[in-house]
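#struct-help
A.M.: can someone run this one for me? Single chain, 151 residues.
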Amino acid sequence: MKIVKIITLVLLLVFVGIQFIPTTLNHSNSIPKTDFMIVNNVPKSIHKKLKVSCYDCHSNNTEYPWYNRIQPVAWLLENHIKEGKSELNFNEWENYSNRRKKNKLKSIISQIEKDKMPMYSYTILHGEAKLSENDKKALIIWVSQLRDSLK
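D.P.: on it. Structure tokens below:
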């Protein structure tokens, strides 16, 4: 029984200790001129869905939830955001070549069709990010038109 108390105490101390290890926040106070929404003059309905469902992980400006202050959750979020931005960063859209833009738009369509994005784990705690069937259709149509308009 004494060993259980010791292990519990050590785990508690480790948990408290890791709370002091900082993470890098993905937060910018400005929206660059290269941003997807600005460059493409996105309709309001599409703008709102992209902002709520995509921008936390795919831009330089994450709106952090309260639980981001708890380790190891903050590390997991930081990792998801880094991965998301390495795949697609909407704030850097205009810096992409047209070929890369087309590939990213094709990927967006595929991810939506296969229900891979937004991630299920994200929509559990962010219900407003979940895409309805109508949202999916509207996004796919608009993104397809945008992709087809690129040279």
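A.M.: thanks! The chain is about 55% helix and 0% strand.
D.P.: also worth noting: The CA atoms of residues 109 and 141 lie 9 Å apart.
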